Amino acid sequence: MTRFFSLCALLGGGLTLLLFTPALEAASGKSDGHKIIYLGDRGPILIELDLHIDGKPLRIAHEALMRKLFDYLDRDGDGVLSAKEAAAVPSAMVLSNPLLLARGRFPGNPQRIRTDSEGRVTRAALAAFYRQTGLPPLKLSGGPVGPTVFRLVGAPEEASAEKLTDRLFDLLDTDKDGKLSRKELEAAPRILGKLDIDEDEMLTTAEVMGQAGGTDSYGVAAFVVLDGARSGNEATSLYVVADGRQDAALGRALLQRYARKGEKSVPASALGLSKAALSQLDPEGNGALSVDKLARFGTLPADVTLTVHLGSRGGQPLVSRKGDRPLPAGVKIKVSDEGVALQLGRSRLDIAGTRSGATRVQINVRDQIKNLFRRTDRDNKGYLERKDVGRGNPFFDSFDLIDRDGDGKITEKELLAWYDDLESLRKMVNRSCVSISVRNEGRGLFELLDTNRDGKLSVRELRDAPKLLERLAASRDGLTREDVPRHHRASLALGPNGGQNPQVRQVIAVRNGRDLRGVRATPERGPLWFRKMDRNRDGDVSRNEFLGTDEQFKMIDTDGDGLISVEEAEAYDKRQPDRERPARQRRNSRDERRERQ
Fold first, then answer.
1. Pick from 435, 463, 482: which residue ends a domain?
2. Is residue 480 part of a domain?
3. H or E stretch including 258?
4. pLDDT given for residue 283 in this prediction
5. Regarding beta strands 304-310 and 56-57, do their DSSP bridges make them parallel or antiparallel, or are they unpaired?
6. How far is CA 135 from the centre of its chain?
7. Cross-strand pairs, 515
8. Distance of CA 477 to CAs 154, 472, 585, Å?
9. What is the pTM of this model?
10. Confidence class for position 511, pLDDT limits 50, 70, 90
11. What is the DSSP string of 112-148?
12. Beta partners for 509?
């Protein structure tokens, strides 16, 4: 229980507005371009983001944050951090994650800060340290944004879209020709239906992968459905470029994405670059791009420049295109109120803001820290000394930073003042950094079949599988893996961890290791009897779910497809006078009228 409430505390917190000084406002016209690369199927797209927070350039806000952090740590005000002052530097993790404090964790910095010849830390060194350890102006935080399931106990790791696609092709491609013909897609309900081990007429990703059930899945597992970003990302599809220099990691990423297996260079033609861009990367003109050459890719002029306004936008659109530079061949762009969509062949990248929603859980972290202090002060001295906080104690790493007067003791007043300082800095962090999270929206065949996006495949969705041929197949012979599009959504948000801290939407306990993605409320449409019978919440009532007779089912299922749709249920109710309905249905109708009232 204690761990659970600690988790909830971690999910709390808020944002406040950073007030800039007049000197910073005067510099607001400065360009704040940050480059990202989308690794599309037909080559990379270089995108420059001109980022603003509350109408101010992101780079200006980030520089103000670094100055504030340095001045807070520089206790003697001499313009450098001594070895003792540097030892008290709070980690980027603490500054961006209040949950750690709620759980009684105050980690120091495992990485060492670069010092000068006299062992001191300069402003530039501190700023570089935070950029490298989790507080850069723009950070790829990764992971789905929106409702997600955080596994606290048990449950297999979620399969990637590519693994699910491979699994579905293995199951459905019965003649093993690498294509899914119409006949094979029409057989999807029969073939995949055998994997429905809990017989709820819904296929989860775990069931498709053969991971559901088993001897290890009979305990009770706790799940928390969150709103917000989480770790584990589609990092192979998006890359944040290091500022204005060669980037060896970028070179390796491009090589891995576009080189043929076993090759140590990428053919120039594989990247779809202009002659001018190729001449910059490959001045020798040999047509092969090694890692060293690819590392310079981020220094090229951007293919697309976008202006992004986060926070208080003052009527400005969230994302808009900047300039009128011609797009590279084959690239299309669509700008709307929701953001920007970039299309390159079968690859698509949507850039928009983070969707938020759930009610935030508010926990008083300050009081929890106060209670932790009092539990540690076993002798009731009113202060803590070094000998009271061993290496395993939560206050060990931050002792010097909390002990502001340097007398070797931590009082409760100093502790609470330290927490208030961190809270103020953390709020500033969330208005001085931007995170970009990437979500795979349709790379896999499973996602294409899952038309209502609930994380499960219903009987009707499996029956509609042949429709993919008309939508996607390049050949009438069948659907190939190459026909499956790549579609990613990049969500921009305030703060290094996706802006607002994750928020609790639901807490659920389940048995038998069932996959909780797509947990849905009772359908709102349809007669009450229909909604109650639709036990798996897929929007249809099957014969197994229907509580009436075979004759009644056939009467309602007018198209004879073996499923009662909401439209068929509504049409049936309109046809039947109230006195001719079964008693159960009359009671349901009365209950339904009461609900509406």
1. 435
2. no
3. helix 248-258
4. 87
5. unpaired
6. 18
7. none
8. 42, 12, 48
9. 0.65
10. very low
11. PPP--TTS-B-HHHHHHHHHHHT--SEEE--S--SEE
12. 222
Please answer whether residues 169 and 378 qualify as being in contact, where contact means their C-beta atoms are separated by less than 8 angstroms: no
pLDDT of residue 15: 27
C-alpha separations of 281 from 269, 301, 327, 466, 544 in Å: 13, 12, 19, 45, 63
Length of the chain: 597
In whole angstroms, what is the distance from residue 418 CA to residue 559 CA? 69
* Residue-level pLDDT at 448: 84
Rg of the chain over all Cα atoms, to the nearest angstrom: 29
Interval 452-492: pLDDT, tens: 777 889 999 999 999 888 878 777 789 988 888 878 888 89
Cβ-based burial of 410 (10 A; exposed 0-12, middle 13-18, buried ≥19): buried
Judge whether 99 lies within some domain.
yes
Least confident of 66-75, 244-253, 296-305, 504-513: 504-513
Domain boundary, last residue among 410, 435, 460: 435
**What are φ and ψ of residue 357, in 5° steps?**
-170, -50
Residue of 147, 213, 172, 157 lying closest to 449 (CA atoms): 172
Same-domain pairing of 337 and 382 = yes
Shared domain check, 63 and 16: yes
> How high is the pLDDT of residue 118?
80
| Separation CA 431–CA 100 (nearest Å) | 20
Q: Are residues 336 and 406 in the same domain?
A: yes
Banded pLDDT at 133 (limits 50, 70, 90): confident
**Start-to-end Cα distance in the chain:** 39
Would you say residue 132 has pLDDT above 60?
Answer: yes
Distance CA 198, CA 535 (A): 13
Share of the chain above pLDDT 70, in %: 74
d(CA 35, CA 304): 10
| Torsion, CA 107, CA 111, CA 115, CA 117, rounded to 10 | 120
Beta bridge partners of 80: none
Beta-carbon contacts of 549 under 8 Å, excluding residues fewer than 6 positions away, are: none
- Number of structural domains the chain divides into: 3
Q: Which secondary-structure segment (H or E) carries 208?
A: helix 205-208
Amino acid, single-letter form, for residue 197: I
The residue range of the domain holding 592 is 524-596
